[in-house]
């Protein structure tokens, strides 16, 4: 026993050895000693788990400049652009907190992955166009040394929108705006439509708009994976946990009209681990709310909406989860968003008759698989919320896109990063999407919602 | 034997396509010495920030070279007309151009070409051979100046992918011959958006590694473009004989 404990047991070995073995050389347990020395050195050297202190590798770091709540495509896009546009390499410490690392209920993974420029708002068109160029050059933007190039499986088919007599004028003006912004869309009359797509029943169709370029669908998982890989190589920390509390500090200030206003700023985020009561307080400077369908809960944690209704303090974030499977239901018949089960009868009764009418070949259609996902539905005007909150000064929103979040993620991520780093939108001006509009009642309505 | 410092190639040369930093994840399996050299590079990259940053920088530099080659020449249009501007772009890339009723103009091995085409203001370009050129989506801006193009050959272009194919529809009125043989990034999704090119008479889609099912794709493309002769793939490619079927009927094609 004594031999094992002492590292240089040479002297002791000589003393305790029996006389008969002296001639046979060292009978020390040399290999055993060497392996023990190696183990001890390894446990002291950095880079290996040290058994002395408790293991905290699953916890987020204690300080982080920016905490992004939500690890879907919007959160990752904001993180990417923050790291890309920062002035010094390693200048910003970014932490992405995602509750579910399997992304089982996240809107990104369950999304169809379509990208389309046929919107009525110029800002939406510009965001989509930028996203198309981002996806086209994705292997330059998200290049990681020694990783295989990303294959988005983009299918450049284009979207075809049909309009009846009463909507034809609106469609024409929309297409004019789209062409002005640079989208390649063309209008087709019913005859041209029949020529091009003979399998469509053009009864009741007065006008159609067809996107020729940069429209189609792609694989959202590939984009998610590519973003995560690139962010890991850029030094962004990821954490699996749930944000349960914001610790804020308030300041009462006077506006220029001599009104008292309470400005809050978040200086700590409590991240709770899965299946345990353990939480880690993360000190932070900026919090970004990219929690998708659950953004309203995160906003409520920061005290947004706690106040008399009708005031700025009392204006809640009007984003709620809405379940969507194949196509939007009518307003009165919203499906229950408690779970993500697909209502197959809905398709048979509501959707299939319209499909069969428009495309006679679909009469014999049978649904093979179906899935449902959440829209982070903005009940106010179905457009995204981007930018800082007027009262909680360091919370920025990047949510509420009601179904077109995936296709606008790169553009929105860049806009939020510019807002944080420069103080204003530099490339695409998303001021119509600021939070203020909920209080002022100014709707930025998008007419072409898919 | 090359000197050891030369063999540590940090970025693959452009001949292999811009697989530079991606090549270690690629499908090609190297043998022997190359493999040792690459794992050494991988080891260095994983353990030293400097090596990683250097490789990233070299990759970005290669990308910017491609962008430089594909910069816009549309400003030449008002001075020399669209056909000369487009022809200049192709010739600078290393491709060949044929004006109507004139001979093919090709650059020599030093990249020099005769400046006679600057005088052909009104003469449209009939055929373009852009094989092995580094044209990408932005470069197509310049190619699409040639409104009356009849024959386009994009064989073995490393940057032509599905996005580029979706951009060819402005040439629908005049394009009769298109060759995409050997383009590594073209897949069946890109081929599907060739449905705009209704005047196409000959389409070459041989040797497309990214197309998963060449035989089926050939049939679908033939159906999509009924007046077009689709060349390059045998429709029975990829089909297997069932266990009970024997190739008795000599009339039916035997899979290669």
TrEMBL record, chain B:
Domain of life of the source: Eukaryota
InterPro entries attached to this UniProt entry: LRR_dom_sf
Family of the protein in this entry: Belongs to the ATP synthase subunit s family.
Subunit structure of this chain's protein: Interacts with incompletely assembled mitochondrial NADH:ubiquinone oxidoreductase complex (complex I).
Function in brief: Required for the assembly of the mitochondrial NADH:ubiquinone oxidoreductase complex (complex I). Involved in the assembly of the distal region of complex I.
Protein's name according to its UniProt entry: Distal membrane-arm assembly complex protein 2
Organism annotation: Cercocebus atys (Sooty mangabey)
